[in-house]
TrEMBL record:
<dbReference type="InterPro" id="IPR006195">
    <property type="entry name" value="aa-tRNA-synth_II"/>
</dbReference>
<dbReference type="InterPro" id="IPR007214">
    <property type="entry name" value="YbaK/aa-tRNA-synth-assoc-dom"/>
</dbReference>
<dbReference type="GO" id="GO:0006433">
    <property type="term" value="P:prolyl-tRNA aminoacylation"/>
</dbReference>
<dbReference type="GO" id="GO:0005829">
    <property type="term" value="C:cytosol"/>
</dbReference>
<dbReference type="InterPro" id="IPR004500">
    <property type="entry name" value="Pro-tRNA-synth_IIa_bac-type"/>
</dbReference>
<keyword id="KW-0648">Protein biosynthesis</keyword>
<keyword id="KW-0963">Cytoplasm</keyword>
<dbReference type="GO" id="GO:0004827">
    <property type="term" value="F:proline-tRNA ligase activity"/>
</dbReference>
<dbReference type="Pfam" id="PF04073">
    <property type="entry name" value="tRNA_edit"/>
</dbReference>
<dbReference type="GO" id="GO:0005524">
    <property type="term" value="F:ATP binding"/>
</dbReference>
<dbReference type="InterPro" id="IPR036754">
    <property type="entry name" value="YbaK/aa-tRNA-synt-asso_dom_sf"/>
</dbReference>
<dbReference type="InterPro" id="IPR002314">
    <property type="entry name" value="aa-tRNA-synt_IIb"/>
</dbReference>
<dbReference type="Pfam" id="PF00587">
    <property type="entry name" value="tRNA-synt_2b"/>
</dbReference>
<feature type="domain" description="Aminoacyl-transfer RNA synthetases class-II family profile">
    <location>
        <begin position="1"/>
        <end position="386"/>
    </location>
</feature>
<protein>
    <recommendedName>
        <fullName>Proline--tRNA ligase</fullName>
        <ecNumber>6.1.1.15</ecNumber>
    </recommendedName>
</protein>
<keyword id="KW-0547">Nucleotide-binding</keyword>
<dbReference type="InterPro" id="IPR050062">
    <property type="entry name" value="Pro-tRNA_synthetase"/>
</dbReference>
């Protein structure tokens, strides 16, 4: 309906014997919105919050660890409807608190983190991540404050120290066997913190240039979610092929840099603070050493486009960042009017005029909670179930067993 194209290949599709296309629902925003638009007529009926516990389907590329990531799973999903952002915020806060209590009662060590809204859409989002080494996600949090975010959303703040003065002249160096940062560092004994890597991605449709150059420090990784949100960059983010790069720059991927780059350039905040650094010369087999901004090349647009690393300062100014692996067991979104506008879901407002509904959605991966609980609670003899989700009560002594047995029989 609304998000088929946005959801992409994870949407599980099939055709019946009549060759009619069908999909199996990964979530049910469209279904519940279509239902509600035919049932509600007045603002007086709101706010409302509906939930269900039902099987969902996603065509995962790599199902793994049993129910940790599977193509079929059980989900508790809820959808709320409102006539104002203020009303949505109240329900969102209540659901945030409820989810926190649920996972705390289960005895899980978790973090509620700011998250990207992804294919679901909306203006705000939080994930509930159970900390575990087997987790698929990187969870970022401060060692001092309550700040927490997933790796896609965590802000990498600009260095506080001013850019150091130039001490080197820019020099063109032959580097025929250095096509990666690792090779450049090893062969020329350079500190990796003094290198810059250049990645070319496709520009937004209608741009004067086909590609955009993104620069991050040699030991940092491009954050693809942040990069995709740049106004110059096409969505979904698509890296340029070698053929596309050579058509524009006349050099291969291992020799790219900011000097004489013929397309728009966006550099990370950390790169903007660098001096005397090395980068490709946009000539095959050559790099420039000793590059300095505003002397050898004008400082281009600066943006936060990298992943944070452990030890970075916390964006809230309190402490430094830690990074641990996490298993996502819950996710809440402020959807706004994305689905209600598309499906024309409205009610009569207090002023008598038609008003598009404002929505929120809230999900718990029921089967994944079980897997996450096991990852945090086991010993050499097997699973140690938290009391709240244990299949039956147990005790360590004969007296405790004697007290438990009558209650068990009564169930």
């Amino acid at each position: 309906m609304v998000v088929g194209k946005q959801y992409g290949p994870e949407l599980l599709r099939f055709v019946d014997r009549g060759e009619r296309p069908f999909v199996l629902g990964p979530t049910h925003e469209e279904v519940i919105t279509d239902l509600i638009r035919n049932e509600l007529s007045s603002y007086k009926q709101l706010p409302l919050n509906f939930y269900q516990i039902q099987t969902k389907f996603r065509d995962e590329v790599r199902p793994r660890f049993g129910v940790m990531r599977s193509r079929e799973f059980l989900m508790k999903d809820a959808y709320s409807f409102h006539t104002s952002q203020e009303s949505l915020q109240e329900t969102y806060d209540a659901m945030y608190a409820a989810y926190s209590k649920i996972f705390s009662r289960m005895g899980l060590d978790f973090r509620a983190v700011q998250a990207d809204t992804g294919s679901i859409g909306g203006s705000a989002s939080h994930e509930f991540q159970v900390l575990a080494q087997s987790g698929e996600d990187d969870v970022v949090f401060s060692d001092t404050s309550d700040y927490a975010a997933n790796i896609e959303l965590a802000e990498a703040i600009a260095p506080k120290e001013p850019r150091a003065a130039a001490t080197q002249e820019m020099t063109l160096v032959d580097t025929p066997n250095a096509k990666t940062i690792a090779e450049l560092v090893e062969q020329f004994n350079l500190p990796i913190e003094k290198t810059v890597k250049t990645l070319l991605v496709k520009a937004v449709e209608g741009s004067s240039f086909p590609l955009v150059a993104l620069l991050v420090r040699g030991d940092h990784e491009l954050n693809e979610v942040k990069a995709e949100k740049l106004p110059q960059v096409a969505s979904p983010l698509t890296f340029a092929t070698e053929e596309e790069i050579r058509a524009v720059v006349k050099a291969g991927p291992g020799s790219l840099g900011p000097v004489n780059m013929p397309i728009p350039v966006v550099i990370d905040r950390t790169v903007a603070a660098m001096s005397d650094f090395a980068a490709g010369a946009n000539i095959d087999g050559k790099h420039y050493f000793g590059i300095n901004w505003d002397r050898d090349v004008a400082t281009p647009e600066v943006a936060d486009i990298r992943n944070v690393v452990a030890g970075d300062p916390s964006p809230d100014g309190q402490g430094t960042l830690l990074i641990k692996r996490g298993i996502e067991v819950g996710h809440i979104f402020q959807l706004g009017t994305k689905y209600s506008e598309a499906l024309k879901a409205s009610v009569q407002g207090e002023d008598g005029r038609n008003q598009i509904l404002t929505m929120g959605c809230y999900g718990i991966g029921v089967t994944r909670v079980v897997a996450a609980a096991i990852e945090q609670n086991y010993d050499e003899r097997g699973i140690v179930w938290p009391d709240a989700i244990a299949p039956f009560p147990g005790g360590d002594s004969a007296d405790e067993h004697a007290q438990i047995l009558p209650r068990t029989r009564a169930c």
